[in-house]
Write a structure and sequence with these properties.
single chain, mainly beta, Immunoglobulin-like, 2 domains, 8-stranded antiparallel barrel, 4-stranded antiparallel sheet
């Protein structure tokens, strides 16, 4: 593998941009945010593939929480489309694209007129840990390999014998808002239920209602325990009852690869910070 990285012909890129503008719906690229050349993948059969061929704002790859759109360029294979949405012609017979599970685990297929399908999550890898393509949720660095029947493996980062990588400015975001919490009785038990899109696990805290009231909304004083920590469940059965004349409050937050969510309601009439108070109580979910 050589060290020289071929560049897309300016004339070809310009013509392609004109063509894509006529029928394309791809978002602006977010590759190589530091402008240091972190935009190249490698194929033993094709050579370099450029994920940002038109420079800033051009027809390169755009990464979002749900998937990839845009294009890659190969001097030897031409344009590679990451989604049928690029040309607004998605249909039952032409519905393809590379998906993102929100945490950087990619799946699905790209399309090239000259190569055919490029699979970002091949089904048969023989235990190869580099099989399939991922994006580091904290670094934005692509890793692993995609598979093409006609071009073989396409590698998105390596350190030897030549160092190269594709990097995006995309990062997963923590769940937004506090999950709605509902309660129902089941015999003598209380069943709590919750759900929030884009969430992988949940934390649930509880505390004394009388203390919350007497402290004028101080969650630092009123938080008693973490009732469920980092659970993937969306319900919890609570047994027992509060002391006579008292009650128990519950709050839930979501977590994912982008970070920890919030207990805050977002309402204008909320008093103080729930997150800060619960964390200061010493009874927060770790």
């Amino acid at each position: 593998m050589g060290t020289a990285r071929p560049r897309a012909s300016p004339r070809l890129v310009w013509l392609a941009i004109l063509s894509l503008s006529a029928g394309g719906a791809a978002l602006a690229e977010n590759i190589d945010p530091n402008n240091n050349g972190s935009k190249y993948a490698w194929s033993e059969n094709l050579g370099w593939l450029n994920a940002r061929p038109g420079g800033p704002g051009g027809p390169g790859i755009h990464v979002s929480n749900s998937g990839l759109t845009g294009w890659m360029w190969s001097e030897n294979a031409g344009w590679i489309s990451l989604s049928c949405a690029n040309t607004s012609i998605c249909a039952p017979t032409l519905n393809y694209g590379v998906s993102n599970d929100g945490c950087g685990n990619l799946s699905g297929r790209a399309w090239s007129e000259n190569l055919g399908w490029i699979n970002f999550a091949p089904a048969t890898c023989g235990g190869d840990p580099t099989c399939g393509v991922k994006i580091g949720p904290t670094t934005g660095i692509f890793s692993g390999r995609a598979w093409s029947e006609n071009a073989g493996w396409i590698t998105f980062s390596a350190t030897s014998p030549t160092s190269y990588q594709v990097v995006t400015s995309w990062r997963p975001t923590a769940p937004s808002g506090s999950p709605p919490l509902t309660a129902a009785t089941s015999g003598s038990n209380l069943v709590l239920s919750w759900s929030l899109p884009g969430t992988s696990t949940y934390d649930l805290v509880r505390g004394g209602l009388s203390t919350l009231i007497s402290s004028h909304g101080s969650f630092q004083s009123a938080t008693q325990a973490c009732a469920a920590n980092n659970t993937s469940a969306t319900s919890l059965t609570i047994s027992g009852t509060p002391a006579v004349g008292d009650g128990t409050w519950f709050l839930v937050r979501g977590n994912n690869c982008g970070g920890t969510g919030t207990y805050e309601s977002g309402a204008a009439n909320q008093v103080g910070s729930r997150d800060a108070g619960i964390a200061a109580s010493g009874n927060d979910c770790p």
